[in-house]
Structures
1.
Amino acid sequence: MSTADELLRVAREESPALEMADPQIWEALGARLAQKLRVDNAQVIVVRHEVANALLGHVVARELGIPLITVADDEGVLYFSTDFAADCERAAIVTTIPEAYPSVSALISAIRSKNVQVTSVGTVLPDDAHLIPALVPTRCLEDDH
């Protein structure tokens, strides 16, 4: 079993061990997700400010050679870690597991409020709860299995 397959197994079980996974697992998983997201030509990766998402997003952004922006939530208000570059037109969201709060829809709205298009959402596990709007392409690693 590959290291990325092991992380998929841990993620499916929603184990707290996800954040403590071996760095090689994050490297393998991020490289695979970057490959899926490459076709969307994003200029920046956006992630929620949580350890697992930040680890995954860092690897994806590095593999694609683009910046990473984290989004923090403070009582329902979303804050970007930095401004989008003036010439940035396209962003991709990366998440380990689509979650209800802050929702992917809220992230999409916040990004669009900066006049940046969301090209896709990259996830480790599928969006079984249908939290990602249908108009935004989803690139899911679980689809590889």
Note: The two ends are 12 Å apart (CA to CA).
2.
Amino acid sequence: MRQRVRVPRGWLVAAVVLAVAAGTACGSSNGSTNPGLTPAELVGTYDMASLTLGTSPPLVPPEATGTLALTTSTYNVTLNLPSGTQTDSGTWTVNGHNWTQTSSVQAIQEQGTVSLSHDTLTVDLNAAGTAISTVWVKQP
């Protein structure tokens, strides 16, 4: 019997946002890992490709979908999960390969690591003791 990992919804949404944004912070759309990216280079809208919580199998479309929108300093994310729709928004900053995001909806601040290959972002972090990995693809 599989045991489900339970993460509070607020942590999950914040962690997914962090994962997405952090992913964009570590590279450009050509696959490089230039640590000197600016917030202006990260502006865009991204679609969720997968979300993995702990050792559970990944959630992928159509089971779970999501969208992340980044401006030079703010984010908005919507996640359509089997448990329901979750939204969050707030501010973000990038420093080299380090991403920091602060939710305007919840009292949560997160940091994480990320890799970028072309327009595919992979973000790994830990929220409330649970490993979270999120993959996002930038919309054209």
Note: Residues 1-5, 18-33 have pLDDT under 50 and may be disordered.
3.
Amino acid sequence: MKTLRFLLTALVLGAALAASATTARAESLHAVLLTASPEKGPTDPRLASWEVTLKRVLRFNSYTYQGSDTGTINAGSRESLMIGQGHELFVEAGSSPLSVRIRWTAAGRTFMSTGLVLRPGIPAVLGGPSTGDAPGEVYAVILVVR
């Protein structure tokens, strides 16, 4: 009987430790700020690996790299990414580093506040506000967990 109680206790503790080790895993975040334009033109070569996804999701004709930043996030932690042109992403992880709340700001304005469940290697694309520079041109963000 004592052996069975010991085995059950060891099993429960082992499962708890395995679960905490999984949620304690740190994830690397990479965020890219870009502009999307309805004008025909080449896509910036730094965005080439995401061009098909950008065209499928945003449906613009050309994309230009504006800046990027990387960070690390754990379950329950927060990270701030300065992604260029004065834009900043505030990322807050939930019980998993892949379940996040995102707040996208620039010049004291919040452009977006949303929740996402990220998948490693799969880009999340956020469409943003007009750049004010050219008709129809907007900002967008790619967020990837590596």
Note: DSSP finds two helices and eight strands in the chain.
